[in-house]
Amino acid sequence: MQGRVAKAVLVSAVPPLMLKTEKSPEGVPMEALDGLRQALAANRSQFFLDVASGPFYGFNRAGAKVSQGIIQNWWRQGMMGSAQAHYLGIKAFSETDQTEDLKAITVPTFVIHGDDDQVVPYKNAAVLQKKLLKHATLKIYPGFSHGVLTTNADIINPDLLAFIR
Question: Which of 67, 73, 76, 93 is nearest to 12 (CA)?
Fold first, then answer.
């Protein structure tokens, strides 16, 4: 990456480590991740509807403006992928410790996260990323969900453009 990338952006990103361990005591318990895998294996189609209808976009929050188009598009994308890749992907995104990878990033990095992210809690992700990255700018958006790039593009995009410029 050295020399070929001028800047980077992390949006609702998982790193450094999502799983609750001795090193990551505020992480997500293995039982919760096993529950995701079980739901995915039991009924993948319903899993993609449930996650999109609920925590991913914050559509399970009181007063949320639910978009069936967004839910159906997320479902469509999920169903196009490999069931095995999705199952193994939960393990990869939740159990891989990316601490050293973050420390190795030397370019200016914009870390974006919503404080109502029910999928990847920002305190165990974005706040720690800011500490590990050499040149990070952190912006936590009040009330925003995990799917901020879709549900809040009107606010996120100008900030992204400002960072890039």
Answer: 93
